[in-house]
Design brief:
mainly beta; Jelly Rolls
Length: about 140
């Protein structure tokens, strides 16, 4: 990849929330393709900015470190988890902590509630930002 840093926001096309386990929470699901143009050594970070609610995240069934509500930025390197087609799941334990779901489009998909935060993929070119991302 020729740029040092590129961001792909996952702001729309989230499936309607599904009930989580008996804890009364909900799970949001977003499917996405492997970012095009990744070079050898490029990294893909899953980033959530300004989450108000705490959540559990998983990419392709692999649980990631928990997301703490109130953090300014949460990031995790998901490069090794990526497939051609991917699934991101965000489980919020207390559904009442987030407002009602925003309006949905014609296919039933739409944006996340703002309390979950801004979700994006950050692509970092090889040799740039080599320190491991941290949560919190």
């Amino acid at each position: 990849m020729h740029d040092h840093h590129h961001e792909i926001q996952l702001g729309a096309a989230w499936e309607p929330p599904a009930p989580a386990a008996a804890d009364g929470g909900v799970v949001w699901t977003r499917r996405f393709g492997r970012p095009a143009g990744l070079g050898t050594g490029d990294r893909v970070l899953l980033v959530v900015r300004q989450p108000a609610a705490s959540a559990e995240l998983a990419v392709n069934g692999v649980r990631l470190p928990p997301l703490a509500g109130g953090a300014s930025r949460w990031a995790e390197d998901i490069t090794s988890l990526l497939l051609d087609r991917n699934e991101l799941r965000i489980a919020v334990a207390v559904a009442s902590a987030i407002e009602h779901a925003p309006a949905r489009g014609p296919h039933g998909r739409g944006p996340l509630p703002s309390a979950i935060g801004i979700v994006a993929l950050e692509i970092v070119a090889a040799g740039h930002g080599t320190s491991r991302p941290t949560t919190g």
